[in-house]
TrEMBL record:
<dbReference type="InterPro" id="IPR050922">
    <property type="entry name" value="LytR/CpsA/Psr_CW_biosynth"/>
</dbReference>
<dbReference type="InterPro" id="IPR004474">
    <property type="entry name" value="LytR_CpsA_psr"/>
</dbReference>
<comment type="similarity">
    <text>Belongs to the LytR/CpsA/Psr (LCP) family.</text>
</comment>
<keyword id="KW-0812">Transmembrane</keyword>
<keyword id="KW-0472">Membrane</keyword>
<feature type="compositionally biased region" description="Polar residues">
    <location>
        <begin position="57"/>
        <end position="80"/>
    </location>
</feature>
<protein>
    <recommendedName>
        <fullName>Cell envelope-related transcriptional attenuator domain-containing protein</fullName>
    </recommendedName>
</protein>
<keyword id="KW-1133">Transmembrane helix</keyword>
<dbReference type="Pfam" id="PF03816">
    <property type="entry name" value="LytR_cpsA_psr"/>
</dbReference>
<feature type="domain" description="Cell envelope-related transcriptional attenuator">
    <location>
        <begin position="99"/>
        <end position="250"/>
    </location>
</feature>
<feature type="transmembrane region" description="Helical">
    <location>
        <begin position="12"/>
        <end position="31"/>
    </location>
</feature>
<feature type="region of interest" description="Disordered">
    <location>
        <begin position="53"/>
        <end position="80"/>
    </location>
</feature>
């Protein structure tokens, strides 16, 4: 065999090996991060089920924190590709006890690339065992009083599971400071407002149209309620709008390449989550390919009322959920 011919063969062997490695790496990346493949192969946890159906002993999540879960934390269907994520925003600053100002339940179908986001008013009246009918945002502070901030998370997860008679699989919780800092880390948010929003306490008005908001300004927007025509309903809509814009901003080409460092920042700015790094990357991958019709947003139906609160022993404003209307109009959003 001629030396030149052997060199050519060696080159082809090396190129073939390199190509096989690239294909293998691509298949591994697809298997690991492509949303439906990733979550189909993951052991999706079940952190809470309605209390009337099952008790909730505890297990350790991968960050070493205690999570609520049923006796078997893995799904019964190994090909499950849909799950529920509870999103909590607390009003805590520093180490003070906190209530949940933002409560949203996201139903994710990674096979269909769809997300249904349900806003839950913080004043929603729910029955907390051992306490009675009180506001759902009291669940967190009651949990903290009986343990720590993660105990508050557990209590909030269980309250939402009971309300919707559904399982909760993942959760994300942040506070004012973490929210502000993360928004600033991704360069702020571009928000388009249908109408001007006047801040009740900020002595500022966000004009109708395009606004570029810093972290502090975005926080002001999602907290504003009194000046909005719909009151708390308007605030919930703004919270959903800001959440969607956070996702859009994170998956922009200039940010998607920074995702590993952004995940590290998420770990610093988010107080508590059981999503792994690969879960977060997979969800970002999914969001990148979503169209507007793939994202649905609803608010929990109901009506306003006043009632005696068993904790503060006085009449408080409540949002009384209409679960019959919910079952007729929107319950399917948690079943796809």
């Amino acid at each position: 065999m001629k030396l030149g011919s052997w060199k050519v063969k060696k080159m082809y062997i090396y190129l073939s090996a390199a190509l096989l490695l690239l294909i293998g790496a691509g298949l591994y990346t697809y298997w690991k991060f492509e949303p439906s493949a990733h979550f189909r192969n993951a052991a999706i946890p079940v952190l809470a089920v309605p209390e009337q159906e099952a008790a909730a002993p505890t297990t350790q999540n991968e960050t070493g924190q205690t999570d609520p879960s049923p006796q078997n934390p893995t799904p019964t269907d190994s090909k499950q590709t849909s799950f529920n994520i509870l999103i909590l925003g607390t009003d805590a600053r520093d180490n003070e006890a906190s209530r949940t100002d933002v409560i949203m339940l996201a139903h994710v179908n990674s096979d269909k690339n769809t997300i249904s986001l349900i806003s839950i008013p913080r004043d929603t009246q729910v029955n907390i065992p051992g306490v009675g009918y009180t506001k759902i945002n009291h669940a967190h502070i009651l949990g903290e009083m009986n343990g720590d901030t993660h105990t508050g998370t557990i209590a909030s997860i269980q309250a939402v599971s009971n309300l919707f008679s559904c399982s909760i699989n993942y959760y994300i919780k942040t506070d004012f400071e973490g929210f502000e800092h993360f928004i600033d880390t991704i360069g702020g948010l571009d928000i388009n407002l249908d109408k001007p929003v006047k801040l009740t306490y900020g002595h500022k008005t966000f004009p109708a149209g395009d606004n570029h908001l810093s972290g502090a300004e975005a926080l002001d927007l999602v907290r504003e309620r009194k000046s909005l025509p719909g009151g708390d309903s308007g605030r919930q809509a703004n919270q959903a709008m800001v959440l969607k814009e956070i996702v859009r901003t994170v998956i922009r080409p200039q940010n998607i390449t920074k995702l590993p460092s952004l995940i590290s920042q998420v770990r610093e700015d988010i107080l508590d989550t059981n999503l792994s790094d690969s879960d977060i990357i997979s969800l970002a991958w999914m969001a990148k390919d979503m169209k507007e019709d793939d994202f649905q947003y609803v608010q929990l139906p109901g009506h306003s009322a006043r009632a005696m609160d068993p904790i503060v022993k006085s009449n408080l404003y409540y949002w009384i959920p209409d679960m019959e209307e919910w079952a007729e109009s929107s319950q399917h959003l948690l079943e796809d």
